[in-house]
Amino acid sequence: MRCQIDYSVFKMKKKIGNFRYIIIIFVIFGATGCVLVRLFYLQVLNHNFYSALAEGQHGFNEKIIPQRGEIFIQEKGGIWHPLATNRNWQAVFLVPKEVTEKNEVAQKVGPLLGIPEEKILDKLKNPDDLYEPLQSKVNDDLVKKIKDLNLSGVYTIPDGWRWYPQGTLASHILGFVGIKDNQRVGQYGLEEYFEQELKGRSGFMESQKDALGRSLLVNNYSFEPAQNGDNLYLTLDQNVQYTVQNKLKSVLEKWHASGGCAIVMEPKSGAIRAMVSFPDFDPNEYNKVENIDVFLNSCTQKLYEPGSVFKPITMAAGLDTNIINPETTYVDTGSVKIGEYTIANAQGKIYGLSSMTNVLEKSINTGAIFVERQIGGDTFRKYIEAFGFDKPLGIDLEGEVSGNLKNIDEKYEINFATASFGQGISVTPLEMAFSIGAIANSGKLMQPYIVEKIVDANGKEQITQPKMIRQVISSATAGKLTAMLVSTVLNGYDKIKIDDYFVAGKTGTAQIPNKDKRGYSEETNHTFAGYAPAYNPKFLIFLSIEKPQGIEFASESLAPVFSELAQYLFNYYNIPPDR
Of 100, 137, 381, 460, which one has the greatest count of Cβ atoms within 10 A? Predict the structure, then answer.
């Protein structure tokens, strides 16, 4: 009998075997591909991450934080006092996961820190939470009381912050160090303007670690020390700043004014000896300020219409072009009609035949218009720009703005006329002060500065040198105008009682424009700018208050304050009499 073999079975088994081989090959290639992809992911795409991880396991890398530079104010005799420094506090925080007695923590810690119990309980709601901050800038005595409670889950850590030991003094000059994008950075004033110089440069320490995690300061050890920030030494005089601040505050309270600005500067150098802005704030508690506009320095960051204190600028243009002289006369009829507009003198007064000196003494609006018409609008505009009203003067403070002259860009006759006595154009108090300072300084407009020197961590000094922006008017013109302003003080302001010195000055009382409609409100701004001794000036005082109540003219509100401050400065700087 022949044995019949079914070859189809063998063929089937062979096919199944081949299929298995194919699957195995695919599995091997697939696994190999996954390994390669994973290796690419680890070694190429995430090389930096795993390198850092390995470094963290086997190496030591620590960032070294520099000390922020300090800011100093001076006193006569070369004495320096800190205005901004650094201070170590403690911060209190919770680890909710470790708190066993929530109510006890809330009841005992809350009153010490002045935090409502319910607020603390709210922070303890999540039992898995590992960190909840409670309060920063906690002093050592309070920290001891908290530690003595011996409560689980309540901790303190060192907490270094900026400290302003003199509170509100020069707050707008300083600004403050605040939190921005989770970083501590300078904001406003010097703190922001000199952020790069003050913050310093971080250092680092790198080394290998042993199996126990201890640093090995051998072989690959590297160290870069932190570079502490530069220190700023200011032109401000502490005694002058303090006196000016108190005087301005008193006059604001006396006349219920909404704000004010005061500047004391040296006309010959541009150095600021005092700068005060109200309302002010305490930079140690900047976060308690409800309206951030309070942080703006009204001397450099706010515009206002100056009024008649601008008339010396108009007169300077007329004198410098030789179109007029101090004795030039015109006949004042009490008003000037331009198209459909009629411009009158203050209180509707009529002065008749008047010289240019009389125009300043009596602050005659029509006299200023007379001068502007004699020189022409284009020339008038050129002098306004030369005096620095069209762009920032370049003071070393954050956020300085420039005047707004667009009203005379339109070149309407009425706009030039009103601008001649300081209406319809807006300027900063700093611009107004330094334009009068140019007259005091033989026609030279100086750049204002408030940092006298910068000293780096190695003691290297960078001293600020006075800088002239431009010669605005001739020395002869400035001399004539100074004599006219001396006559203005002697014959125009009986509130100034200074017998031993010649003083040059001018007031301004300007109506405040309406916000929501054309025209002007009944509210006013008052300004006084004056310098002394007039023919060899050592200082210039600028004063401005906003919306005083119950008093009509700056000659009554500010002239007495100017007189008191001037007498103080004569005595403080031992300036000899010149009369």
Answer: 381
Query: Which sequence spans correspond to the domains of the chain?
Result: 7-45, 64-163+195-229, 235-572
Show the tokens assigned to 314: 């108009």
> If DSSP states are collapsed to H, E and C, what string results for 70-90?
CEEEEECCCEEEEEEEEEEEE
Q: How high is the pLDDT of residue 516? A: 80
| Cis before 283? omega within 30 | no
Q: How many CA atoms lie within 13 A of 389 on its CB side?
A: 29
- Specify the fold of 64-163+195-229: Penicillin-binding protein 2a (Domain 2) (3.90.1310)
Residue type, 424: G
User: Distance (Å, rounded) from C-alpha 117 to C-alpha 149?
Assistant: 16
DSSP, residue by residue, 383-438: HHHHTT-SS----SSTT----B-HHHHT--HHHHHHHTTT-S-BB-HHHHHHHHHH
- Backbone dihedral region for residue 171 (phi beyond 0: left; psi -120 to 50: alpha; all else: beta): alpha
Class of domain 235-572 (CATH, top level):
alpha beta
Nearest residue to 502 via CA among 471, 475, 530, 474:
530
Tokens representing residue 131 in the block: 């960190």
Structure tokens of 413?
């006759």
**In angstroms, what CA-CA distances link 414 with 186, 321, 383, 385?**
45, 22, 18, 19
Tell me the pTM: 0.82
What are phi and psi for residue 151, nearest 5 degrees?
-95, 135
- CA 475 remoteness from chain centre: 34
Residue 25 has a pLDDT of 63
- pLDDT higher for 518 or 465? 465
| φ and ψ at residue 512, rounded to 5 degrees | -95, 130
3-state helix, strand, coil in the chain (%, to 5): 40, 25, 35
**The three-state (H, E, C) secondary structure of 200-255, written as one string:** CECEEEEEEECCCCCEECCCCCEEECCECCCEEEEEEEHHHHHHHHHHHHHHHHHC
43 three-class SS: helix
Tokens of 113: 């820190």
Euclidean distance between CA atoms 543 and 276, whole angstroms: 10
CB 282 within 8 A of CB 503: no
Per DSSP, 538 falls in state S
CA distances from 268 to 48, 212, 241, 300, 515 (A): 59, 67, 19, 20, 38
pLDDT in tens, 120-134: 998 888 888 888 889
Same fold, 64-163+195-229 and 235-572: no
